[in-house]
Amino acid sequence: MFKDESSYSVNPAGELLAGWAAEAMVVANKAPVLARVEQYMARLSLTDAQRLWIRGQVVAQLRGADMEGEALYAQAFASLHMALATLTDGDELDARLDLSLNLPVGETHDGKSCRWLQRQMAPATVRSSMASRPLNRSWGAALLRLVQSLLDRRAISANRRVLPGEA
Amino acid sequence: MGRSGARPWEAIGRYRRYWLSAFIILPACSAGLMLAQVLADRLPLWLEIPTLTIFALLFAWISAGFWTALVGFILLMRGRTDTAPGSPELRLAEPRPQSRVAIVMPIYNEEVERVAAGLQATYKSLQHAGALAHFEFFLLSDTRDPAIWLREELVWSALCQSLDAFGRIHYRRRPINNKAKSGNVADFCRRWGKDYEYMVVLDADSVMNGETLYRMLEMMEGNPQVGIIQTQPVAVNRETLYARLQQFAQHLYGPIFSAGLRFWQLGDGHYIGHNAILRTAPFTQYCALPVLPGRPPLGGPLLSHDFVEAALMAKSGWGVWFVPSLSGSYEEVPPTLIDDLKRDRRWAQGNLQHLRLLAGEGLRSAHRFLFINGAMSFLAAPLWGLFLILGALGSLHWATTASDGSITSFDWGWLADPMPFWLFGVTAVLLLSPKFMAVLWVVRQRGQKENFGGLFCLVASMFFESIFSILMAPIRMAFHSQFVIQTLMGRGVRWGTQVRGDQETSWADAFRYFGWCSVLGLSLAALLYPFLGAWHFAWLVPILGGLTAAVPLAAWTSRPALGRWARRHRLFVIPEEVHVPQELQTLGVDSVAYLPHIEGDPFIQVVVDPRFNAIHTALQRNRTGAWSRAANLCHKALEQGPQGLNNRERNVLLSDRNSMLALHRAVWSTDDSARLAAWGLQSDDQELADAQMIESK
User: Fold this and answer.
1) Predicted confidence band at A8 (pLDDT cuts at 50, 70, 90)?
2) Angle at Cα A125 formed by Cα A122 and Cα A126, nearest 5°?
3) Residue B103 lies in a domain
4) This protein's superkingdom (chain A) (predicted)?
């Protein structure tokens, strides 16, 4: 689980010191990959603490990784997304969504921000049917009706339905 | 279900409509008889009968407008609008706490920022009125263009964030767009209609005042037998000269026509498809549109749905009321003549389709009349054209034939007969007097003429607007005739996007669209002048002049600069420009400056940008059925880049959550600089070099 500075009981810089030495080795060998990771993180509104922690997680995963090319990038981004998921104790997509919507990461909607956003976009459906009725009556029938109405209006006039709410 | 007697307004409405029918039919017959006296023994029957029939029809058509305006004028001058028993204005009830209203805005490939600005203005106005608790918004998109879909989705999320309106503003995109706008609204009714007792339908350019919306809700609550309440939206916000002329005319003449229309219609009113509140349950139950037998354009789905929906609502016993006294309802008009005519083309087809419903069982006679009236708005054009042709044939026949049947040289002495001048005068009065009535009404109201730029500017604007209308009439006649003929010959129109911005018509476009009108006008002028001579030719100048001037009229009136010039000189000013309502003040571009700015292809942005990707992907479901196809498309996208995918393929990927996540990860994990560039990402070497350069600086 990710913790920011306020959650640490000791000086966080001290705790991270050992990690930094290891990172220096990784950075030297895998600078382009980490640059890409930084490029990605720059697009998310992470706090400095979150960014550093995620970077540390990625570096830790890359340490000793014997890979090159796309496999290395894939490993780095898998680590990055895993770290993002850890921020919310759940899904990386929920974490990214929280960051995109400027919500406190993992602290709203029980960490299920995606489901919450879906409900905001479209409330639960309550189906009802709406079927059209044909309006086709021949002109002959319509004329006959007109003649009937002219001859004896009462014979053909129907009373109107009582509408809901009408006395 | 029980049965009920007639409603209180029905007898009044029937009585009034008998009078209207008499006012229309009797003068038309009288005028026809007078013309018959002139034509008797001078024209052969084959020419006389069609001439008289068309004349009587056209006379009836214009006199209907005149009587409506006159009644409206009298009502307004008496200082009260119609208050017949049963009018919804008379019985307002405070909305129950559980009353919910859905404000639905169906859109189709609209400019997203403008839609958001309009929705935001209405939302804020409702908030200001303290009525937000009863209302929720639904943005119902019918777009199939992935770029527009993505923009809409991101704008929706940003709008909700900015207004703190999650759960109050909803968004739905319909992937299959059957029955166009009416199908979109029906889709809403089927999904969510049960949850909302009422719905307010807005157009993409509609804005409504919060207090007006609340008042409409009060009317619905107080009148449970009312199914639809229609407001009179006023045209605002446009800058082109053409649109400003339309806005001015609508503001000045609109109220008297609206008051008159309300007087005749009462509870058998019309619905124009937007800026109206509807009772959802009866709308869902009774107002699904029938599909006409046969093929388009006259068969198939109905293109103009609103009139038919009102007719179906009234047929099932619900009241449909037009309430022009409700202010704070706005719309925008097409900016140019071309856009106006494009809209007319759709309306022409839709209104002609309505004629096929005339024999429909159970429709109220007022709505059958509205169907005829709507169709006549377009049929009047070819009838007028035909009347002119018959008139010309009659004149030639008359002038070249002596009373004993022998052919003589041209003799125009018959024109000394005063009767045609008298008829011409009556026609002119019917057409032009409503304009003077409207000015009189404005002048009589305290402070109102200042809202039109002052008395002098008001009269000058009316004068120029009348000249413009006279010149436009033959152009419209030519185009409307063309539309009617095209529809009758089976050529339909496709559902298209409407132009909402102030876009100028180039001279090339003006020539392309209106060149034939100008050529026709010039040719007829050259042909007829030698035969007619100056005096008789002068009678044809308004018609031939309008046709000839079609190209420059279309081009010049589309200029926003000319519109602004007119405004600076207080011409065609409308009250909303003098005192800008709060909800229109918040419509400016700056009001939605916070919306996400998406540069380039939105598809690329949504695949690459982790924030946009998160918002879009979160809103999709896993579509397992499409996974095998989506996997292939993911590979194709990575191999060929985003440009290798067409819109349909993009839609498949965009609709599946898993594919969007996979593609997002795959693009960021790629090592190939060419592929990265295709997705708008810098290669890492370049990124590092840039970083080093910045550091060294």
Assistant:
1) very low
2) 150
3) no
4) Bacteria
Chain A, nearest residue to B357 by Cα: A135
Min Cα distance B590 → chain A (Å) is 21
* Mutation to test the B interface, candidates A33, A135, A143, A156, most B Cβ within 10 Å: A135
Angstroms from A10 CA to nearest CA on chain B: 33
Q: How confident is the model at residue A7 (pLDDT cuts 50, 70, 90)?
A: very low
Q: What is the mean pLDDT of residues B284-295?
A: 92
- Please, are residues B231 and B203 in contact by the beta-carbon 8 Å criterion? no
**Is B285 close to A130, i.e. CB distance below 8 A?**
yes
Reported residue count of chain B is 697
- B74 inside 8 A of chain A by CB: no
**Following DSSP, what letter does each residue of B583-605 receive, concatenated?**
HHHTTSGGGGTTS----S-HHHH
pLDDT > 90: percent of chain B: 76
B230's enclosing H/E stretch is strand B226-230
Q: Which of A36, A39, A117 sits opposite B619 (nearest CB)?
A: A117
Q: What is the pLDDT of residues A60-118, one digit of tens each?
A: 988 877 777 888 999 999 999 999 999 888 789 999 999 999 888 777 777 789 999 99
User: Amino acid identity of B63?
Assistant: S
Closest alpha carbon within chain A to B666? A74
Burial B214-228 (b: 16+ CB within 10 A, else e): bbbbbbbbbbbbbbb
| Residue B239 in this model has a pLDDT that exceeds 50 | yes
Query: What average pLDDT does this structure show over B47-55?
Result: 93
CA-based nearest residue to B419, from B18, B33, B69, B19? B33
Fill in the amino acid letter for B443.
Answer: V
Does the pLDDT value for residue B681 go beyond 90?
Answer: no
DSSP code, position B290: P
For chain B, how far is it from start to end, CA to CA, in angstroms?
84
Beta-carbon separation of A39 and B224 below 8 A: no
Q: Is A10 exposed, middle or buried (0-12, 13-18, 19+ CB in 10 A)?
A: exposed
Start-to-end CA distance of chain A, whole Å, equals: 65
**Residue B642 belongs to some domain of the structure:** yes
- Expressed as residue numbers, the domain containing B691 is 602-696
Q: What are the structure tokens assigned to A17, written together? A: 């010191």
Tokens linked to B360: 């429909």
- Out of B7, B357, B684, closest to residue A135 by CB: B357
Query: Do B687 and A137 make contact, defined as CB atoms within 8 angstroms?
Result: no
Cβ <8 Å between A93 and B614: yes
Residue in B171, B668, B682 closest to A77 by CB = B668
Q: What pLDDT digit, counting tens, does each position of B634-660 carry? A: 999 999 999 999 999 999 999 999 999
Identity of the residue in A40, A100, A159 whose CB atom sits nearest the CB atom of B615? A100
**Residue B462: inside a domain:** no
CA distance B182 to B30: 43
Interface residue B609 vs chain A (CB under 8 A)? yes
Q: Is A69 left (phi over 0), alpha (psi -120 to 50) or beta?
A: left
pLDDT, residue A5, reads: 47
Which tokens is B110 given? 């609209």
Is residue B628 assigned to a domain? yes
Residues of A in contact with B171 (CB under 8 A): 121-122
Distance from CA of B676 to the nearest CA of A (A): 11
